[in-house]
Amino acid sequence: MALTLIFTSHSSLLSKTLINSPSSFPTPNSQSLSLLSPNPKPKLPSLRLRSSLSDDTPTDGDRPTNITDEWGEKTDPELEPLSKISESDPPQNEDEWGGGGDEVVEVGNGSAAKAEVAIEEKVDTKLTELRRGLVDTVYGTEFGFRAGSEVRAEVMEFVSQLEAANPNPAPTENLGLLDGNWVLLYTASSELLPLLAIGSTPFLKVNKITQAINTSSLTILNSTTVSSPFASFSFSASASFEVRSPSRIQVEFKEGSFQPPEIKSSIDLPQEVDVFGQKVNLSAVQQTLSPLQDAVAGISRTISGQPPLKVSIPGERTKSWLVITYLDEDLRISRGDGGLFVLAREGSALLYQ
């Protein structure tokens, strides 16, 4: 086998040596040289070397040399496969484990980014569903005054889930998001029950309760508007606040203010009212009051120019605290010593059904 390898690797050199050294080997009769075993039995491996001195015969560099193996069969030397890279398949940077190097990292980073975006979208979708579910639940309860036990339990379930997914756990550090006008949607505050009870009377209705927060001056203004068939009334309470923690503020009320009533130019009575469970038709009363509309319009013009009536708020009830448990661009949930408050930003789509 060693001899075979020698001839295989240096066939050209050996061919020339054999030709130039007739004393070592018999002169060949043809253009081929043979190295045969003298004893045909047992048959030993043989090796034939082909050489040519002709100029038109391809040299070893032109074509591979034919070799006869130890079994007497002609074989061609094994050629190493040429490395050919397809233009359509660019080279990949593979590591020792057979995986792509930089490419895997790049794909991994892209997948992580896409996964993060998908998670954020899923969270936003969940928050949107919870907010809409809460607003739909409190709709028609008159700020929670007419909410039954089942509705209140459902409201608390929505509130708990929103508080657990609060996107701004430190709302007082994001004063720009806290700033603005907020409209009350629901409350479980016992202090507001007397005010909300006004809406249960036949001719009065609580139209709107708002809270304006000015983070530049650290002030709060709570306003309420009550309407009747004859006029609408507005009153407010102003307060200052201090930030005590990332989610808590201390509130101190200063004074109350009563705006002059806005007398309506026409008396607009409802068609019927509910008095102790009985429906009372007011069409006849509306016809009786129609001649008084001109007088009512004159009173309205006189009163509208009067300044608001301001009164100080005495007593220990001037101080209160408020913890903001949920805050985003459209919804705010707060808990205070007076109870639970759910508010939507004025102009938000949550206010429209």
TrEMBL record:
Cell location: Plastid
| Domain Plastid lipid-associated protein/fibrillin conserved: from-to ranges | 129-344
Q: Could you identify this protein by its name?
A: Plastid lipid-associated protein/fibrillin conserved domain-containing protein
For this UniProt record, give its keywords in alphabetical order, as a comma-separated list: Plastid, Transit peptide
What is the organism field in this record?
A: Malus baccata (Siberian crab apple)
User: Spans of biased composition, class Low complexity?
Assistant: 26-56
| The keyword Plastid belongs to this UniProt entry's keyword annotation | yes
User: Which Gene Ontology cellular-component terms appear in the entry?
Assistant: plastid
Q: Which residues form a coiled coil?
A: none
Q: Which family does it belong to?
A: Belongs to the PAP/fibrillin family.
The source's domain of life comes to: Eukaryota
Region feature Disordered, mapped onto this chain? 21-106
